[in-house]
Amino acid sequence: MLRDVLFVILCCLTGSGFVTYIVFCIRFWFGYKNYTPVKNYRKRSVSVIVVTRNEGRNLPTLLTALVNQDYPLDLYEIIIADDASEDDTAELVARHMDLGVKLLYLSIPGRDKVLSPKKNALKQAIAASSGEVILTTDADCIVPLTWITSMIEAFADGVSMVAGYSRTKLESWDKASLVQKYEHFDFAGTYMVLGGGYTIGRSWACIGQNLAYTRTAFESVGGFSKIEHLISGDDVNLMQLMRRAGHRIIFNFDKRSFVHTLPVKSWKQLTNQRSRWASNMKYQLKFDPEFFFILLSMAFMYWGGILMLAFNWKLALLIYAFRILVENIFLGYARSHFEVSARMMRFYPIWLLIQNFFLVFTMVLGQFNLFVWHGKKPYKRSKA
Asked: Quick check: helix, strand or coil at residue 225?
């Protein structure tokens, strides 16, 4: 009797997630099909802000790209906010000064006195900046020389925030490790879904590695003041504050804006990263209930699909077969927007097998804040 009751509950939960999944896949397909980007060629002053901590190995590559942008030199500045680095960051920045672009180095104090050092560094850098638009990336990223131009062109009339695409830099797909292939494919798959949301007017998430917003919009929501108690979320939670305030947020599908970031080196590193991302799920109930319930439905689908094997393996396999069919149709159509080749798509079966377990695992870790970010743990303030 109990087994039958549990089976019915499982079917209802799994079914709700599956229906949500199918409905949005169809909506995304039509969204991509009918999406037409709008550009604005008016030049704006830009402040590129990079928060860094012990990234001396990666900074030279990023700085070289930033000082050689095809955007007018007198219309953008670069601000490196150094979050208590213990390497030669200051010296590296100094070597790139006097190259025709305004480059400012800020040493950010008080790291041990705040829960979220990155938000603190961003806040201080924005206060010291002068640009009409704030454009952010990370020190371990590689931006194209057309990055600023493309991101600013996306600010059509009424747009307050532009989210961009970031994916890992793999020198060779064939030589990449299993975890790096998984990360790269999963990044792309996630953005295909998020990008689909943007095509139907839903701004659910973004990443600070490639993000731009107007100063006026940032100030209108009080900056980070409402989310400074959260260790992460300087990107997605700020987006939700702007969305709730009625600001227009779009995604930049222009490949000239795509950013690369370094791939992880281990499953431990990827687990920590994804657990941190998943930790924001619980805050979406407050910031964006629709996105929260979509995530919850997806969790039911993933968990239910696994648990269903213990009750009715034939039904479980049928569910997965239908999911694979729908997913491949959607990914096959959307992948061209994110430079996912047919060769990479062959990794899909391996990704699907790993994802079913990895996603559930990191979601659980995230809800209990079991991760570390830049040496900080959630809700644990230093007494220094």
From this structure: coil
Annotated domain spans of the chain: 2-34+288-367, 46-164+206-265
Assign domain 46-164+206-265 to its CATH superfamily.
Spore Coat Polysaccharide Biosynthesis Protein SpsA; Chain A (3.90.550.10)
Query: Which amino acid, residue 70?
Result: D
Instruction: Give the end-to-end CA distance of the chain in Å, rounded to a whole number.
Output: 57
Give the residue carrying structure tokens 């670069």: 78
Q: What is the pTM of this model?
A: 0.90
CA distance 304 to 298: 10
Q: In what order do the strands lie in the sheet with 166-168?
A: 141-142, 259-261, 166-168
Block mean pLDDT (10 aa), the chain, length 384: 84 87 88 90 96 92 96 96 90 89 92 84 95 96 97 95 95 94 94 93 93 98 90 86 95 96 93 82 77 80 81 85 85 89 93 86 78 60 38
Angle at 351 between CA 269 and CA 203, to 5 degrees: 75
